[in-house]
Structure formats: structure tokens, C-alpha cells
User: Fold this.
Amino acid sequence: VITATDISRAASRIEDWTVRTPLLPCPRLSESLGVDVALKAENLQHTGSFKPRGVFNALLARRERGATIAGVAAFSAGNHAMAAAYAGRALGLPTVVCMPPHAVVTKIEAVRRLGGEVILTDDLLGTCREVAAQRGYDLLHPFDDPDVIAGQATVGAEIVASGFAPHLILVPVGGGGLISGIAAAVKHARPGTRIVGIEPVTANAMTHALRAGVAGPLPNRPQSMADGLTAPFAGDLAFEYVTSLVESIVEVDEESIRTAWWEMLDQTKLLLEPSAAVGLAALRNGLIEVRPGVRVVFVISGGNTSPAALATLTLP
Amino acid sequence: VITATDISRAASRIEDWTVRTPLLPCPRLSESLGVDVALKAENLQHTGSFKPRGVFNALLARRERGATIAGVAAFSAGNHAMAAAYAGRALGLPTVVCMPPHAVVTKIEAVRRLGGEVILTDDLLGTCREVAAQRGYDLLHPFDDPDVIAGQATVGAEIVASGFAPHLILVPVGGGGLISGIAAAVKHARPGTRIVGIEPVTANAMTHALRAGVAGPLPNRPQSMADGLTAPFAGDLAFEYVTSLVESIVEVDEESIRTAWWEMLDQTKLLLEPSAAVGLAALRNGLIEVRPGVRVVFVISGGNTSPAALATLTLP
Assistant:
């Protein structure tokens, strides 16, 4: 498990490259839920998600350890891809990103606009390894890397430093890197804080891992309107963090996510992606016990959505 | 013209009732425009717009002057209506709001949810005067009231206090109350700051007033996707403020507003209503001279929109 020192070093490393995002109070959601809500607004991070934290920390930590990085090879359907391209450009490193053929076109375009090369492939990890080996590039895993987790942990460190002192933190879960980092940072500083993860029932890699007792691939390709959470497997490291530091992982269905998405948009007035609405979906479904008046942080993991996705809000 | 003392008194009066909204940096918009952008996020204000500032200040100032307020009568198609109902509930005053029959259904429902009584009428001002007289309620004008303007001025005072020191502030214009308040606050403190107002070409009450040399009703009912800016006339007071303190009022067409709306949503990651996108529409159309590197504040006047409105973003 990463230490408090690892996390404070990560915070120093990425300070000049990332946004210290605000923790915003939300009176409307507080009133409607009967708890004291604060929003960790990672949608305001560079590239519109928390991902640059882990990417910058991993690349800068490797350089500190004496590595010469010739380029970056990453794989992702979306937010990690954009973060890798953004960090590659900022640090002067050529970046290639393996993306699935079904990836959202606007996300592919965003990677290219940031100077990243895109390879479309169904075998994300395999192709990425091959390209990295051929070109001598560094492979950058989206979540199963201790430096990436230490970078995401700065989200938790900032919540701790805010003075809000939450009783409960709700974290969307894909591969598990974000919740691992947040849990590590928060449990070091305030062990009594409850950390709960939420994933779509149709993209439940972590629940699958918890049932099996080990992280492994989902039997079917995960699909969800919360596209940021459709990792095909949970990280091995993340599985360890979740097992030891997280209270529970709960699952929400698509209709609950869609309803919660509009409620979050309307009540927070932040543009957030469906992935960032799963916490509210879980609360509205009564899946997480919450006493009146407690302080709750919603981690707004990202804000990358499209007009076409927003148009689905009008579906009956 | 309201004084610096009027504005600081307004700020003290409304402090416990309103949100001191953040002034958020926006790296993406800064990069794409080549200027240093900050967003005054009034979409995060109670009821999702700046309107409660003026409403609370007007009601509390009247009480300070010894008035006994039996109830509040207001007229508005949207944001002022919600603010009046919200403030009425908070201050324990019955509130009736005259709204046009074509008002957005979700806004009518929002007023009712806040405990306001809604009267649908085409003659907003006439009916409101009548109801106020019948019931002995206080009529609360949405913009043509010095206390309302002093309340909106706290937006400007907070921008001044932020230390951002903008060269230019872009303000959406409907009846003119917001730009009047902001101009008064900013010009007192930093006379060199440029204040520019923007209104839809199809809802241009202030341009109409400037051409005529006097505030008067528009010949046709104004219509725009920027529904918050469709005041049928500019305020007499606002006309005076704009004439003396504002650099210019520029007009933008509907297609420019729609394009700028998505760009603002995507780049700011704030949920904002079309009215709050007119500043970017004006910049993109080259209507406002801006030197590279200057500091620009976009006043995000509100964030009240609907799934149906968001679905129009997919139109070709």
C-alpha cells in the first residue's frame, strides 16, 4: 500500500501540471438528501477528468528514478486516453493510444487534437504492449500501477486538506484506481471515514473480482451509459486496496444512472458525465446507509459528455 | 447611481441568504481564446441564477426602512420568479408570481415547488400591479429598482474582491439590472475595467433603448433560446447605468448562441443556460476587441435549463 509520503510526493510532483479542483458545497442536493453534500469537482480538472493526476505522477516519478522516457503507450476508451495525450504533449513525449473501435468519436478526436496517435484495436492491452515494445515507449496502465494510484490519491489528500471532514465519500469505480488512491489517502489521515464504491451492474468488474476472490476479466464486454466505468477487469492492486480499505462496492442499473444523471446536472449545475452520477443513483436506491446530517463527498470523476448523450435525457 | 456604501450594505444584508459564488479559472477556454478567462459562477447561486441577490436585498432593505411586508408580488418568465419564491419562503412571506402562459413548464413547477403561487397572464406588469394592490403585497420589479440593482452589484463587488483584476467583464443583458449593478460596483473600484453587455438580436431591448434614446417596449415580443434575456423592455434605471458606465452593448444571433452554448458547456464543464453563453458568442463573432493575454470575466448568469433544451444541441 502506498504511504502518506508517496502521496505527498505525488502532490508536489503534479502540482504545476494539474488543477487543484474545488470542493464545492451543494445546498440543493444537501437539502433534498438531508445530508451535507460537497462535490469534488474533477470535471474541472485538465481534460475534464481526474486522470491527469495519475498519468503525470507516473511519468514524472519514472523520470525521477532516472528513466529516460522515449514515448508513452496507453490504452483506454476515453478519459485516460485524453489524459495520456495531454500529459505527453505537456512533457514533450510522443504518445500513442490504443482505443477500441467502438470508442466515442469525439473522444478519439480529442486525443488527436492533443497530438496523440490513435490505434483502433479490439485487443487493447495486447496491441499496446506490442507497440510499446516495438518503439521503446513506456506502457502506461490506466489503473494497475502504484504511481498512477498515488497520483489519484491526491484527490483524497485534497479532500482531507479541505477541512470538510466527510463521514462518507462516494467514488465511481471502473478499474479501481481512483477509489484505491482516495481510500489510501483518506484512511491514512482519517481512518473513520467511510469509503463506498459504486459501479454499473452491467460493468461490475470490481464486484466480479470480490465474488471470485481475485481480479479477472469479466465474462462479457461491459456496457453502460457510464462509459468511463466500463473497464473489462479490475486492477490487481485495486482489488487489494478495495478489500482492505473500502466499506463496500454497490451496483446500480442503467435507468437509475440516467435518472440520477439529470438530477445531478440540475442540482449541482456542473456538467458531469453519467459515470459521476452513480453515487446519487446508489443513494436514491437506498443502497448505502446514510444518517441525516452527515457530511458526504461526491467525487465528480469527470465531465466528458456529448450532445448526443445529453439528448438521451429526453427519453421517456 | 448607487454608491459604494449602498453596495457594501447590500453585501452585508444578503450574506446569510445567498452564496458567495466562486470565480473559477478556465484553462481550456483561456487557451482557446488566448486570454486569461475566469468564470463568475452564478449558476451555483441558490435557485441557479444571480437573481436572489437583488430580491433579498430589496426585501431586506425595505424592512430596514421600517416597512411591514405582507407578501411579495413578482412577474417573470423564469429566474426572477424562482428567486422571488425562494426568498419569500426563506423570509416567511407569501409570494405570488405572474408568469406568461408560454413560460417553460419546469420553471412554473419550480416556483410552485418553492411554495409560490403562479398566475398565468399575458399582461405581466398590469396583473402584478393589480394583485399587489388587491392583497397589499409589495411589488418586486425584476430589474428596475435601485435595491435590486444594488443586490446584483454584489456580483461585481465579489469580482473586484477576488484579486483577479479583469480588463474586461462580459455580462448577458435582459432588462439590464445585472449589468447595471456590476458596472456600478466595478467602476467605483476600478474605473479602467471595460464592461460590455451582450443581448440576442431577437431580444434586444437595451439596443432598442440606446437607438431610441429612451427605454421603451420592444415592438414585437422578444424570443430567443436565451430565454433569460427576453425582457420586453429595458429598465429606465438600467438605461441610465448603461449609458454612463458600459462600453457597449453588442447583439448575437440564435445560431451563434447555440454554437457558443455547447462550447461553453464543453470547455467550462459548468451546466449553464443559453443566456450565459452570449459572451462567448460575441467573442467568436469578433464583436468585442480583445488583446491577447488580457484577463476576461464571463458572468455565468444562470444554469437553469432542461433536457428538452439540451436535446436541441444535436440539431444539425
